[in-house]
Design goal:
This protein is mostly beta strands. It has one helix at residues 324-350, and strands spanning 5-12, 19-24, 28-33, 38-42, 61-66, 72-77, 81-86, 92-97, 104-109, 115-120, 124-129, 134-140, 146-151, 157-162, 167-171, 181-183, 191-196, 210-219, 224-232, 239-246, 253-258, 265-269, 273-278, 283-289, 295-300, 306-311, 316-322. The chain has one helix and 27 strands.
């Protein structure tokens, strides 16, 4: 494995039940739990925010996510409610529900912060207008719970995954009701998570209106998969093709996420480990073994320096990630410092 080090810097042990989701903004870390609460932590010292915890849900909270600029936090729960919060005050701004009032399993903001999406046990996605705080439309194709959803970095496409193993690509810009493409064998035993690389992708010379994306997904088949996705704005010609399969976990992979700088991919598993991967080479970099039960969620900080991992052991662990290039710089500086110290010592002897 390439030299990548994860150093434990903080352990959060306040929640009284399973940790189901973690999310970073530039200033806050959100942790969602089966204890019905969402807690907010300052990223500069990981102390709890003064208005934390947020106590608007009546059952387990399964998902939490910040909007792109950190102004809003959305949380979804088994109580069927999707709640929008003000991250400056902790004030509850709005509450949404699917018509079925079933459990909300996943949620995400569009990168341009105009739309909020929720995935539900009723097998549908719902789109909500953030400005008007109103329902836009529902998207229906899945035949099982929608447990993950994510927008492409440019807000053009929306990808959803379900417990029946499907990955579906939707028009994220105009919200058309029909899927643009889907793969029925994304993960044999069900999809559990997916995420887009925030930095990967550029227009090709041969197809100037087409953009190339890198998508990661994980599932109950113990695998992390990388997908090449190509598509153009407003066009139906979207292709999703398998790029690589990352093997190493020995139990279901419950979450995956890219670092904001695009250089790392993290995955958390029922085997109690977190694995770090090079998403471009498809190579393993590091394995973290500290949780005592399933690792249910993971998220990188906005500067890609920290990784938060949450578990059924009721803890959230904060790791500082140091990569090979940073280690080399540290080693060179240390070597220079040692040489300088030795030169001073010799100089003192002769003087």
């Amino acid at each position: 494995m390439t030299s990548t080090v994860a150093s434990l810097v903080q352990s959060i042990n306040v929640h009284t039940n399973d940790i189901n989701a973690v999310s970073f903004s530039s200033q806050l870390l959100a942790t969602a739990s089966s204890d019905k609460t969402v807690r907010l932590w300052n990223t500069d010292d990981f102390t709890e925010a003064t208005f934390s915890p947020l106590c608007g849900h009546t059952y387990q909270v399964y998902c939490c996510v910040f909007s792109s600029f950190g102004k809003y936090l959305a949380t979804g729960s088994m109580d069927g409610k999707l709640i929008l919060w003000d991250t400056k005050t902790g004030q509850r701004l709005a509450s949404f529900q699917h018509q079925s009032k079933n459990c909300i399993r996943s949620c995400c903001f569009s990168p341009d912060s105009t739309t909020l999406v929720s995935g539900c046990d009723d097998n549908t996605l719902c789109l909500w207008d953030l400005g008007l705080r109103k329902f836009i439309r529902s998207l229906e194709i899945h035949e099982a719970s929608v447990v993950t959803c994510v927008y492409s970095p440019d807000s053009v496409f929306l990808v959803s995954g379900s417990t029946d193993g499907d990955l579906t690509v939707w028009d994220g810009k105009y919200g058309h009701g029909k899927p643009l493409t889907f793969t029925m064998d994304g993960h044999d035993l069900g999809v559990t998570g997916c995420d887009f690389s925030p930095t990967y992708g550029s227009a090709t010379v041969s197809e100037p209106l087409s953009t190339h994306y890198l998508l990661a997904s994980c599932g109950n088949d113990n695998l992390v998969k990388l997908w090449d996705m190509t598509g153009g704005l407003g066009g139906p010609n979207v292709k999703l093709s398998l790029r690589d399969t990352l093997m190493g976990h020995t139990c279901q992979v419950m979450s995956c996420c890219f670092s904001p700088n695009g250089t790392l991919l993290a995955s958390g598993s029922g085997d109690k480990t977190v694995r770090l991967w090079d998403p471009h080479k498809g190579e393993p970099l590091h394995c973290i073994e500290s949780h005592s039960r399933f690792v249910t969620c993971c998220a990188f900080s906005a500067d890609s320096v920290f990784l938060a991992t949450g578990s059924n052991d009721r803890t959230v662990l904060l790791w500082k990630i140091t990569q090979e290039s940073q280690l080399t710089g540290i080693q060179i500086k240390l070597h220079v410092d040692i040489l300088y110290t030795n030169v001073l010592h010799v100089s003192c002897l002769f003087n």
